[in-house]
Amino acid sequence: MDSLLNQVCTVKRANIFGAKNHSKKYYVDLYEDEIVGTYPCRIVRKSAKTSSNQVESTVQGTMRAYFNNEADVEEGDIIECSEYSQYTFNVLFVYNPGFHHKEVDLEIVPKSV
What we know:
This protein is mainly beta.
């Protein structure tokens, strides 16, 4: 499996903390992305699966990433990969088949200029 993971991905997670807003005297939540780790991975385009009468329109803009089982990836995380520098990816779903590796469905988010 390791030989197939030929890319490196950085996993980020929103870190929520309270900060006092001195002018309004109440607490607000601030979100700051915290780097969880950098892991070997492989990102590929998710293939469309259609039956004879159904067309799946949600396949556009989705990718799949593969990680080792040890990678700390959760739904809602943000993934950055140096090979796709113009995009970030939102983690939609994490699947761990047989606890062998992790398959992660990703949503493509273009980076703002």
